[in-house]
TrEMBL record:
Subcellular location: Membrane
Matches recorded under Pfam families: Bac_transf, CoA_binding_3
InterPro entries named in the record: Bact_transf, EPS_sugar_tfrase
Gene Ontology cellular component annotations, sorted alphabetically: membrane
Entry annotated with the keyword Secreted: no
Membrane topology: Multi-pass membrane protein
Name recorded for this polypeptide: Bacterial sugar transferase domain-containing protein
Ranges for domain Bacterial sugar transferase: 278-465
Coiled coil feature spans: none
Keywords: Membrane, Transferase, Transmembrane, Transmembrane helix
Membrane-spanning intervals of the chain: 20-40, 60-76, 96-113, 119-140, 283-304
Keyword flag Membrane: yes
GO molecular function: phosphotransferase activity, for other substituted phosphate groups
């Protein structure tokens, strides 16, 4: 590890952000260049033996235009902004938007100028390019997270707060992947004069990249404006943490009324075209999935049956959308009749009854332990997805006894269909405590979208492959 990297990681925001942006830009270029060359090789193999006609030369030009427009849009739409790298879905959303914009641009150009473009080439390059960008950014994200755990590529933050425990501080401690490290704190009190020069001096003294106004900070609009002006000659960013939490960007809109910024919160959408699109995605993937894995499911069924001659499938009443009960299907992983001992086992392991699972459950069979380890026992719930009782992505389907213990806010989990996977699945799974599981489920309920569903499905595959938190 070079001394330069250590220095960059410990402070100089302009340096490490520029370096990181260049690295990502280089990766984007080489990934899309390779994808373009490979797709030309597949679609026009005669190019490589020098046998070119006018049509093929035109498509080489089109390929160059696709590559250039794609890279340009990736640059201007902020897909390499450091404040979205390493966490969240915004980075991947911008990759998707850049791909769609480039495709639309090429389609428009071909229509206006009546260009002869190989449709097969276009239909190959955009999906393969987007998938390749996803993979490359995922690899870069893992490297970035590792670097941030080592103290590199992080922003040094000066936090303004009221003296009490600020919620921002707790959140940032839990979110090391965001690369925000609080290195100094200053109190803002009503009885004291707000000294923006002192704050800037403290930030410079501590080599800070950001001044963050916490949720508890006592600061007026004019003081905030003066602080922003004082930072104009520095490389220090000013960040304000609003009191609104657990609300995703698409639901937040800012308007300006006579210089007064107003934050609008759109209501969560549980119906309409988005709901219909989600249902179509569920149907398509559940049908295709069942067809592809049906031989594998037969093998699993034979293993379960041969172990103790019991039933292969286990059904249980669960509570779904709008408090409607349905039978959820799973591969049987416990000895038959052992579900009646659930409360006793949970009490012995000091496990919250609302979380349902215990890592040391004696009722689990040997094949069942393997199935749970790799989340194979959940696969029959695809039947529930096909029937419309569940979705591929959503909160975990609870038992009626669990629902009876819900607080009022926790019942909002029932506003959407329960899912085969969800944010809880990709954020710790069974290792989460009840409060974290509820927080993640409610975040999903309040902010769900098709893009979020697709990202969760991708992250689920990775979590299952690693076997994280499953029992």
């Amino acid at each position: 590890m070079s001394q330069l990297n250590k220095t960059i990681g410990q402070g100089s925001s302009a340096n490490w952000k520029a370096q990181l942006g260049r690295q990502i830009g280089s990766v984007d270029f080489f990934v899309l260049l390779l994808v373009t060359i490979l797709n030309l090789r597949v679609r026009f193999p005669q190019i490589w033996i020098g046998d070119l006609n006018n049509y093929e030369l035109k498509n080489i030009g089109i390929a160059t235009l696709i590559l250039s427009s794609w890279l340009f849009v990736l640059w201007i739409n902020g897909s390499r902004e450091t404040n979205i790298l390493g966490f969240g879905a915004d980075e991947y959303k911008r990759l998707i938007n850049a791909t769609l914009f480039s495709f639309t641009f090429i389609a428009f150009i071909s229509y206006i100028f009546k260009l002869e473009i190989s449709r097969g080439f276009v239909l190959l390059i955009y999906p393969s390019g987007l998938i390749s960008l996803f993979i490359a950014r995922r690899i870069l994200r893992k490297r970035l997270l590792k670097s941030r755990n080592e103290g590199r590529y992080v922003s040094r933050v000066l936090l303004l707060h009221s003296g009490e425990a600020d919620p921002v501080e707790k959140r940032l401690l839990l979110a090391k992947h965001a690369g925000l490290n609080i290195v100094h704190k200053l109190k803002t009190q009503e009885s004291q004069t707000f000294n923006h020069k002192q704050i800037v001096a403290e930030a410079l003294k501590n080599n800070c990249d950001q001044i963050m106004v916490g949720q508890s900070a006592l600061i007026s609009a004019s003081e905030l404006r003066n602080l922003g002006w004082a930072l104009e000659e520095t490389n220090i960013d000013l960040v304000v943490a609003p009191a609104v939490t657990e609300i995703a960007g698409p639901r937040l809109k800012v308007s300006n009324v006579e210089g007064l910024p107003l934050l609008h919160l759109d209501q969560p959408v549980f119906s309409g075209s988005a709901k219909a699109a989600k249902r179509l995605l569920d149907l398509f993937l559940s049908v295709v999935g069942l067809i592809i894995i049906s031989p594998f499911l037969i093998v699993i069924a034979l293993i379960i049956k041969s172990h103790d001659r019991g039933k292969v499938l286990y059904s249980q009443k669960r509570v779904g959308q709008n408090n409607k009960e349905f039978n959820v299907y799973k591969f049987r992983t416990m000895y038959e009749g052992s579900h009646e001992k659930r409360d006793e086992v949970m009490a012995q392991t000091n496990k919250d009854l609302r979380l349902a699972k215990s890592p040391n459950d004696p009722r689990i069979t040997k094949p069942g332990a393997f199935l749970r380890r790799w989340s194979i026992d959940e696969i029959p719930q695809i039947i529930n997805v096909f029937k419309g009782e569940m979705s591929l992505v959503g909160p975990r389907p609870p038992l009626a006894v669990e629902v009876n213990m819900y607080e009022k806010s926790e019942r909002r989990r029932l506003l959407v269909k329960p899912g085969l996977t969800g944010l809880w699945q990709v954020s710790g799974r069974s290792e989460l405590d009840w409060e974290d599981a509820v927080r993640l489920d409610l975040y999903y309920v309040e902010n769900w979208s098709l893009t979020l569903d697709i990202l969760i499905l991708i992250r689920t595959a990775a979590a299952v492959w690693r076997g994280e938190g499953a029992y």
